[in-house]
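Same chain as my last thread, 78 residues:
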Amino acid sequence: MAPGTFTINKRAITVQIENQSKAYDDDVSTDPALTWKIVSEQGLASTNDKLNVKLNQQAGEAVGHYAITGTFDNANYD
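reply #2:
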């Protein structure tokens, strides 16, 4: 009998960065916390899993729109 292979593939998830806003006050300390959520049908495989999400807001305090970008670091998810 020839040996077989057992493969575990990455779990596909979709992470959505949530929109944020504030009234103009030129004070970075009043910026709301940057947040995210998993929106894919399949969530994390375990409540113990961590995605290590890092979010960044484009710099600026004048009235306008600023991009929020992010990454996550967990080799088990794609």
